[in-house]
Specification:
CATH topology of the largest domain: Rossmann fold
Order of helices and strands: HHHHEEEHEHEHHEHEEHEEHE
Strand content: 15-25%
CATH superfamily of the largest domain: Leucine Dehydrogenase, chain A, domain 1
Helix content: 40-55%
Number of strands: 11
Shape: globular
Number of domains: 3
Structural class: alpha/beta
Largest sheet: 6 strands, mixed
Length: 339
């Protein structure tokens, strides 16, 4: 058995019942196998064993009080995976699906994503099984402040710099950073994704979605075409999806479908992005409310967005959202690229 496969087998035995983490390990170690197996000195140095084991795993309770005066308790996580290149860096995700396996899966991949930037930053990920949907601003603030009461001692500008992810936008980062500043007395770059008024960066909100579309445009360029007059399907309706739709429209594409966790909308005339921004960024509503703006649009509860015919598909919601059935539908309907 090869060195990489021995490490993979060991990781699965040491971390049972963590399917998402196993998936990330399998994909990355399989891709590394030809290179690693050609360098026996890596096995002697235990490189993969050190790479696959997080440097630190934090799990903690997050008690908070809702608007009805009831005490709630959620579970918080921070997996500080690797700091070989520099301070840990990676987002925080607030979603009911968050568990240790998913956070380790995301944290492991974050090591490589960050290293590819060429910047001196390590990899980490964190979050909680808290759902901000349907919560008041006060409830979200109470949760974020309680979360940071544990996390603050493990983060900092030269130690670990969290950011946003699913369920953690500018509002949440503001509450988190405000409590961090209160506890430490430090006004420093301990978070990215802050508002412009207190140390945030221009285009930070748009960056991921815009970057995705630039990548898609280059993919199409390799095929001898571009985004002009192409039909696009974009899953999700958070920051990544919304600004991917915005940039795709600037390149001349027509976005015909978007989604959230309840279902998807299909608008053959092209999605009204200002309506989506009003619903999702300002009202924090559900995608089905789009029908209030476009009567001819269609809403599909719990449907598979990849069944919509398109030229380009942009998964922008969460991990593992495009599976076998969806891929087959995209191929059948003549989709050119997935980015």
């Amino acid at each position: 058995m090869s060195y990489t496969m021995k490490v993979l087998e060991k990781v699965k035995k040491r971390n049972p019942n963590e399917p998402e983490f196993h998936q990330a390990m399998t994909e990355i170690l399989n891709s590394l196998q030809p290179f690693v197996d050609a360098h026996p000195e890596y096995e002697k140095a235990g490189i993969l064993e050190r790479l696959c084991e997080p440097e630190r795993v934090l799990m903690f309770r997050v008690p908070w009080v809702d608007d009805a005066g009831k005490v709630r308790v959620n579970k918080g996580y921070r997996v500080q995976f690797n700091s070989a290149l520099g301070p840990y860096k990676g987002g925080l995700r607030f979603h009911p699906s968050v568990n240790l396996s998913i956070v380790k899966f995301l944290g492991f991949e974050q090591i490589f994503k960050n290293s590819l930037t060429g910047l001196p930053i390590g990899g980490a990920k964190g979050g909680a099984d808290f759902d901000p949907k349907g919560k008041s601003d006060r409830e979200v603030m109470a949760f974020c402040q309680s979360f940071i009461c544990e996390m603050f001692r493990h983060i900092g500008a030269d130690m670990d710099i969290p950011a946003g992810d699913i369920g953690v936008g500018g509002r949440e980062v503001g509450y988190l950073y405000g409590q961090y500043k209160r506890l430490t007395g430090l006004y420093e770059g301990a978070f990215t994704g802050k508002g412009l008024a207190y140390g945030g960066s221009l285009a930070r909100t748009e960056a991921t979605g815009y970057g995705l579309v630039y990548f898609a445009e280059n993919m199409l360029g390799a095929l001898g075409t571009n985004l002009e007059n192409k039909a696009a399907v974009i899953s999700g309706s958070g920051n990544v999806a919304i600004f991917a739709a915005e940039k795709a429209a600037q390149f001349g594409a027509k976005v015909v479908a978007m989604s959230d966790s309840n279902g998807y909308i299909y608008d053959p005339e092209g999605i009204d992005l200002e309506a989506i921004k009003e619903i999702k960024l300002r009202r924090r509503g559900r995608i089905c409310e789009y029908l209030e703006y476009r009567k001819k649009a269609q809403y599909y509860e719990g449907g598979l967005i990849w069944s919509v015919p398109c030229d380009i598909a942009l998964p922008c919601a969460t991990q593992n959202e495009l599976l076998d059935e969806g891929a087959r539908l995209l191929i059948k309907n003549g989709c050119l690229i997935v980015a």
